[in-house]
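Per-residue structure
===
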Amino acid sequence: MKIFVQRIPEDTSEQALTRFVLEPFSKRSLFSFGAKPEVLSCEIIRVTDLDSNQVEYHGILRVSPDDAAAKVIKKLNGQRFRNCVLKMRQFFERAPSDKRWREMTPEEYRQIEDKRRPRVLVEKVHQVKATGLRQFARSHG
């Protein structure tokens, strides 16, 4: 299952977000049941609103198994991470052509509000790992 982590601090690394998600589940207790979550992938994305030039950072984690991912959302939604209260939910892929209202009646359509902003730029934040920098310095030093 993919988990969407809304509005994380700008300087958050993939490793820091992964550690934050796994840390509460790292200690086994007599009361912990089920599988422990495993983070299969973690991405940090930057969303820029082209009309207002506001920038937001979000995380997308792929966590396995699905029941453990649901526990991650339940346990960490609303928790503080670097002075930010995080909102977590299941991530759903949406294509730009996704028109959910095709199956709706006109009355149902009037009751919803499309939260997507019309002009945004979404970019994956590429991070250089420290070990890569050390290796680069050794070979080019």
